# Entry
Amino acid sequence: MLFTGDEALQERRALMYAFDAERQYLYDLALEHRFDTKTIYKLYSGILLAESLVLDPANQAE
# Structure
């Protein structure tokens, strides 16, 4: 579904909030030493990649 105008802006804000929440969750897990650092970084990198693809679809590899 494609949104225009204000709906597209709201969608982008919601996605940015969701990705930020995911990164914060991983940060909290890292502080609690619940997972090794390598695992946290791998998951964090995946979140950043997903964020870049979702929020900037024009730069997706074809």
The chain has a mean pLDDT of 87. The two ends are 20 Å apart (CA to CA). Residues 18-56 form one domain. The CA atoms of residues 7 and 26 lie 29 Å apart.
